[in-house]
Amino acid sequence: MVKYTLKRLLFFIPTLLGLSFLSFMLVRLIPGDPVLLMLGERGGSPEAYAEMKAALGLDKSLFMQYLIFIKDVLSGDLGSSIFSKESVLKEFMTRFPATAELSLIAITWASLVGIVLGVIAALNRNGFIDRFVMTLSLVGYSMPIFWWGLLLILMFSIWLDLTPVSGRVSVEYDIETITGFYLIDSWFSEDGIRAFLSSLKHLVLPAFVLGTVPMASISRMTRASVLEVLNQDYIRTAKAKGLSKYVVVFKHALRNALIPIITVIGLMVGTLLTGAILTETIFAWPGLGRWLVASLLQRDYPVIQGGILLIASLILLVNLIVDLLYFVINPQMQKGEL
What we know:
MetI-like fold; mainly alpha; 0% strand
């Protein structure tokens, strides 16, 4: 397993290097000039423009800028925001708990509901329930996040007035940031249960929107995996022994069908970090997605480069954990050290 882990870790290096190069070059293809945004269209003379450009290191060639960027990254410095002057890593860590909380809640409900629906569909293969669940998952998978989010805001926030439109907690509650997870911090705040319920109400709608696509994918994968396992000889043997349907399905079939399901869930965790960009923008959620969108509009090169690199590192780390879980669960991989 150590050998397998080292192989996966070595794979990180060319992947991150390629991503850093792509993010560095693509961000410079975005129309607009960060120097002009800082000075204003009429706010600076040519001399002031040249001085500001040199101060930001944008007067050098793209190749030199990239080499400087890589050198700083290797030394642990991702740079500072052009506009806020704050460290990119500090800003990332400030906003990461909001995205992590949203993503964890989204993947939790998506996994639980998706697995249950997938098992139910598999047990009622080609029946009405199966067709209904698969149609539901297809609709969920095809639903554009921005449209789905706006539709739910219209229904539950405006028409029914059940959930807040934006933010993480009501402005009346002053929550001290301890963990960055408001469901935890609000519980230990002065307002206790009231602040917790406010935080929960703010979280429900964006988490539901963000988890819709993963839920659809997990339910379809669960159905296919369970159906494949139910056709195995040892399942027929278990049924012949007179074991109850519950034991056969949940102790034998589902347990062995979890390998591809865990893989999909792990991959979905990574995609949630990117899918959160739209969700956080729609619900004004102060996380990484909204941070990157604002940085794109401002042409804040260091934030975009460093943010993408950090998010890519997180996704690769999640994929590594999934690979290791797959390695532990699947005995054939342990034999071959693939």
